[in-house]
Design a protein that fits this description.
single chain, mainly alpha
Length: 231
């Protein structure tokens, strides 16, 4: 009983206040940390360096940060189920919004700094260069998820909200694909993301209601096997 009380009231705060006053502000600060690091690297602060090609540095780091945060949102469900921390889901929307923020920065650096707002070239790249097509598609799919990330939209959409936000799995696949195609020489890092995503999707499939129904149907089918039927 004492352990349960301790879990509910840490530092004199219940779960609701703990997430609102401690964990969410901490996640917000952590979400801004990559941006602060990139700014420091651009100006050579604290010994960091953006290298010779600063535009390429910004494109790569913003893109990887967005992909990291998308993967982190996918880790929330396994973490809360395996660790018995159901309230972790309260942090998922904020992490997802930061993923959209960095994906938008990634695209903005490409459009503004790389192509100098040449929209004709942007359109040509989206159509003719497959890895940009895939990345742009992922960004477009992130837009409705970001727009519907408010409590009001959750109430308005009801069950459709959960169905809509399952797009995050498609977005993650497209993001990893975009990263893999972009890395023409050394694909070890994209392959690591591919492995991570495969594990997360495998966990999701293993816990899915569809798989449970399929296994139930198989058990029922075996139970109805006529006598004398060979094993």
């Amino acid at each position: 009983m004492m352990d349960a009380v301790t879990r509910q009231h840490f530092l004199g705060l219940n779960v609701e206040r703990r997430y609102r006053l401690l964990y969410k502000p901490a996640v917000f600060v952590a979400g801004l940390a990559p941006l602060a690091w990139m700014i420091c690297a651009l100006f050579g602060g604290f010994g960091f360096s953006a290298g010779v090609d600063q535009v390429k540095f910004l494109e790569l780091e913003n893109g990887k940060t967005a992909l990291n945060l998308i993967m982190l949102t996918l880790m929330i469900t396994p973490a809360r189920q395996l660790a018995g921390l159901p309230h972790l889901v309260r942090l998922r929307r904020m992490i997802g919004l930061f993923a959209f923020f960095y994906a938008l920065l990634h695209f903005s650096v490409y459009v503004v700094l790389d192509l100098d707002l040449n929209w004709h070239m942007v359109g040509a790249d989206v159509v003719k260069r497959p890895y940009i097509t895939v990345g742009f598609t992922a960004l477009l799919l992130l837009v409705p998820l970001a727009v519907t990330s408010t409590n009001r939209m959750m109430r308005r959409l009801g069950r459709d909200w959960s169905r809509l936000h399952r797009l995050v799995y498609v977005i993650a696949l497209l993001g990893v694909w975009h990263f893999y195609w972009q890395e023409k020489l050394d694909v070890r890092e994209p392959l690591l993301y591919t492995l991570m995503l495969t594990i997360l999707l495998g966990y999701r499939f293993a816990r899915s209601a569809w798989l449970r129904r399929l296994l139930t149907l198989l058990r029922v089918h075996r139970g109805r096997r006529p006598l004398g039927h060979p094993e």
